[in-house]
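Problem statement: downstream parser choked on a complex file, so we are re-checking the raw output for the nicotinamide-adenine-dinucleotide run. The parser issue turned out to be on our end (a line-ending mismatch), but while we're here, posting the original submission so the record is complete.
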Amino acid sequence: MTSHQAERPSREAEPSPPGASKAGPLSDEATSSPFVYQSNSQRVVFAWGAARQVAAEVERLGRKRVLVIASEAQSADASQMLEALAPRVAGVFARAAMHTPVEVTEQALEMARAGAADLLLAIGGGSATGLSKALAARLDLAQVILPTTYAGSEMTPILGETERGVKTTRRDPRLLPAVVIYDPALTVSLPLSLSVSSALNAMAHAVEALYARDRNPVISLLAEEGIRALSSAIPRLLGDVLDREGRASALYGAWLCGMALGSVEMALHHKLCHVLGGSFNLPHAETHAVLLPQVVAFNRGVAVVEMARVARALHRDDAATGLFDLVQDSGLPCSLRELGMPLAGIESAAELALKNAYWNPRPYDQTLVRQVLTDAWHGRRPSVAVVID
Ligand code: NAD
């Protein structure tokens, strides 16, 4: 058995009875299995219009020279921060890019040093937050984050960086942002398809947290609630992308799923997304949306109770088909083919997935990973039957 194989299947592999997903308490694992819970210390401010409190939050931290970070497409958000923090701004770097390329970090590092920045403030999605963390890792500065997508990076001590086409990830408590300001008003401009794929990205954190090797009952509660909040938000946003309740519910769910991501280990799904993002430059949120139903189908036979919790949170009968139908019904791409992945790339992706492989509840090898990626490439709807090894 290699390191990425299951040491402890999360439950006896047996299909759940029809309708089990909607039944009452699914598990008393909280009291029957030992666990370790490590809380992360962060200040979270959540409100419509909370972005207006940014100057007060910087003041609270006692910092005087703020480097404002954003993606290019969000230069307007960066300008808003510049206005709100005017005398305290050490510089504005609005060139954050997906998957945190090291060469971009080096340019931002120059600006931070030239401006003698003593605080990093990122407004944007995971790309802006990723750059903030990459700078924090090099400069040991505190961070304030205003998330505008549902990626969840602001709640984690994790940094993924890309260099020469390879994405590497590290976890360090010093990377955890000090303050997170959640303002649903900042998310209303997020286009509908990105809103839904980003919501699926958030759900993926919660799904893998539920069957994580180091899962614990507190994070499992947050994970299930996060999926519920996001899945109730999606139809609202599909009906009206400006829906206030939908936006607030989605951001609340993203917060919970981000906490799940930041607290326990992720598994095969996240490994595959890192490989496809880092080596094939596939769009982050959309890749999560395509792969999640396939990986859940792969894992559900050994995580029966956990995946029934996912189904319950989604109000569907089965987690894998429920997630697939959610992606399809939302009009998102269901296949890696549609995201621009070359069919010929599957073999090398499967090979890369086995390098520094992640633990997964169901053991896997290159052949099995190739099958998961092939199903994802074609966008095949998972079968209802549960596969048991
Ligand atoms: P992103 O930050 O690149 O945003 C996608 C696009 O949407 C960008 O062009 C951005 O400018 C735009 N955008 C963002 N918010 C907007 C808004 N409200 N209105 C209009 N446009 C908006 O993508 P993402 O999916 O948020 O994050 C992906 C990145 O985050 C990846 O690099 C991924 O690896 C990383 N990530 C890291 C962690 C972690 O814990 N380290 C967790 C999740 C994601």
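For whoever reads this later: Residues 252 and 333 are 25 Å apart (CA to CA).
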